[in-house]
Amino acid sequence: MPRKYENVKEYHDPWYALTANRLLVTLGGLQGEVNCDVCVVGAGFTGLSAALELSQKGYSVILLEKDTISGLASGRNGGHIQRGFSQSPGWLIQHYGLETARFLSNVSLEGLALLLHRIAEHDIKCDLKFGHLSAAMKPKHEAELKADINDWQRLGHKDIEWWDEKTVQDTVLTNSYTGGLYDAKGGHFHPFNYALGVAQAFQRLGGKIYERTAATEIIPGNDVQRVLTASGGSVNAKFVVLAGVTGMKGLAPLRKASITATAHVIATEPLSDARRQQIMTRDLAVIDARFIMDYYRFSSDNRLLFGGNCNYSDREYAGEDMRLRERMTTLFPILKMTRIDHCWRGPLDLTMNRMPHLGRLSPHIYFAHGFGGQGVILTNILGKIMAEAVAGTAERFDVFAKIRHNTFPGGDLLRRPLFVAAMTWFRLRDML
């Protein structure tokens, strides 16, 4: 019988953490006072990317993480590698013009190249596989995906294909899909092992990582910024990079510009090769074209990792594994008797316009957050672009910093209920 998760704490044990391919020794919690050129707050993909780039440029860097390395969003996501932003290429053209949209799309493709370069350069074993499919479930989706292909071509990306219904259903063995957008350069990987590999490369360059060290406040200065921590230690740095919204004092404007949602992923028991071939004939990553989509892929040990049914409230509900199981077996009835071995959750940070939010709090304090579920590539490249800005080359950073972001309406009391109501409307629209 399928395993039922009665204890929500079990969600804290993702399959990724149980299949880490290396041990990484950090400095534990920060005690005392330390000095560096740059203090990076947050050891997810964004912070790790910025820290590695800055170290490669010769800066002394200290990385603070309130939890563990990539223990939250970056090390818990679906592991899909997909170019672009949460908004479509057509939306980028409409809102920012063709030239800026082309710049943004090329930054995304550069981010993919950066990801692959780091995996090769640092010999990161992270189960990298190529091939990504965005699947249509109705004519409306087909029209939207075909428009995306045309808009990608307008932006100079001519390597994305349209797969007809037969091609999709010969590859993904469900009759739910009627066509799809296929990106041969996209794919999937083990995000936690990738993060550990980047962290180790950063350490080899002399970078210092303090885990279980929550930054609580930045005391700005002309030449030195002082970062205080909950553990009692402090960091004196010329620059500070905030990689993700934190609970630090004085950051209320950033927190009001984004809101968190919760994504869940389940992992089946290992499947036989014959059973795998009854689900997909190729080792692709797949999402569907709904606003609140399902997404899935195979793991290196033949499990199906299946996510979807995002939770937009600030409450955690029991039975997320069963809800995901129902969505999975609706697509693939052959898995109805398959055991679920793992279920975990991870946060998504969303902005109003679903675009990343980058900027400066002062000439020496930089921030980035709000990747909206499209962060695998963007966090890596934007971490690099923040490092460029710290080093004095800010042209690319400033393009992102000029993107306008509004706060979520409703204030502290009503912003979450209004957000949930809006997402409920999108969920209902998906059903039509």
Describe, in plain words, how this protein is organized in 3D:
This protein has 432 residues and is of the alpha/beta class. The chain has twelve helices and 17 strands. It has helices at residues 15-18, 45-56, 89-121, 139-154, 165-171, 191-204, 252-256, 273-277, 320-331, 375-390, 395-401, 411-431; strands at 33-41, 61-64, 80-81, 129-136, 160-163, 179-188, 208-210, 215-219, 225-229, 234-243, 258-268, 285-288, 295-298, 304-311, 340-351, 357-362, 365-369. Helix 2 runs parallel beside helix 6 (191-204), helix 2 runs parallel beside helix 10 and helix 10 (375-390) packs across helix 11. The two termini are 33 Å apart.
Secondary structure tally, helices: 12
Note the main sheet. 9 strands, mixed
Structural class: alpha/beta
Beta-strand level of the residues, as a percent range? Answer: 25-35%
Q: Report the principal-axis shape.
A: globular
For the CA atoms, what is the radius of gyration? 21 Å
**How many angstroms does the end-to-end distance come to?**
33 Å
* Low-confidence residue ranges: 1-11
What string, H for helix and E for strand, traces the elements in order? HEHEEHEHEHEHEEEEHEHEEEHEEEHHH
Number of strands: 17
